[in-house]
Design brief:
Elements (H helix, E strand, L loop, with lengths): L1 H6 L5 H10 L2 H8 L3 H14 L3 H13 L4 H11 L5 H14 L3 H11 L6 H6 L18 H7 L1 H16 L11 H6 L6 H15 L8 H20 L4 H7 L5
Helix pairs in contact: 4-5, 7-8, 10-11, 13-14
């Protein structure tokens, strides 16, 4: 009781000491060189007062080591000839975790925003491929934006996808999607559009050398539906996600 009163925290001494002992040695070395009183107030107290100590610690570490990807953002804005406020970029990064439950889908959009997707242009620079031309049209340099959006074969395929989804009853899919929104995602609350765009991009990327097949894509979309619902059974409200996917039979 005296320990709790002195430091104004809800955990007992054993829990507090256990937390300290769990810290890696490198962290302790860093902490010794800083203002411990300030750290005690701003971090340890917050962690001890939360119900999810592990998550709070993880998020605090993420805040410490993560930096905003200014270089990648600047390259996207230069390529798209458009400027987005920092707040909008932050929404785009956060939408990765709102749009889909699948870790593969999330990571794929993460790669797009960070410009780490491997294309023929990069493979040519690394001396892995002899040509940097697009795998579909073989006319233009294969960059992320060209492979996923600008290629004529991809444009035709994307038109079929938009037409199919917008004609399905029970959804509010808006087929009028700009290049920026398709590649980077909508910063607003439009989960269906973001998800369709994301699945489409991942499918296109998975079949260079073979033109996108619409029937195969629809089967992939159904597989995504089943996997998203399965993940939802383990956590999020299943009924809510089921109604979200109800339009796809």
């Amino acid at each position: 009781m005296e320990f709790k009163n002195n430091y104004d925290i809800s955990c007992d001494y054993l829990s507090y000491y256990g937390l300290i002992q769990a810290l890696p040695i490198t962290w302790k070395t860093t902490l010794r060189g800083q203002n411990l009183v300030k750290i005690k107030e701003s971090k340890l107290v917050t962690i001890c007062n939360t119900k999810k100590e592990t998550r709070a610690t993880y998020m605090d570490l993420i805040d410490e080591v993560c930096e905003f990807p200014h270089n990648q953002v600047n390259k996207w804005e230069e390529e798209l000839n458009n400027y987005f406020p920092i707040a909008q970029w932050q929404n785009l990064f956060q939408n990765i975790y709102i749009t889909a439950k699948s870790a593969k889908l999330r990571y794929f959009q993460f790669q797009i925003l960070h410009r780490t997707l491997v294309t023929n242009r990069k493979l040519k620079l690394w001396n892995i491929k002899n040509s940097e031309l697009c795998s579909f049209c073989e006319l233009e340099t294969e960059r992320i934006s060209h492979l996923l959006y600008d290629c004529l074969h991809v444009k035709i395929f994307w038109y079929r996808v938009k037409k199919y989804v917008s004609e399905q009853p029970g959804n509010q899919f808006n087929p009028y999607i700009s290049k920026e929104d398709f590649l980077l995602g909508f910063s607003g609350d439009n989960r269906l559009v973001n998800l369709i765009c994301l699945v489409t991009k991942q499918y296109i990327y998975s079949c260079p050398g073979n033109f996108p097949n619409f029937a195969q894509y629809i089967n992939k979309l159904r597989d995504i539906k089943h996997s998203e619902l399965y993940i939802a059974r383990l956590g999020e409200k299943y009924e809510q996600l089921e109604s979200f996917w109800d339009w796809l039979k």
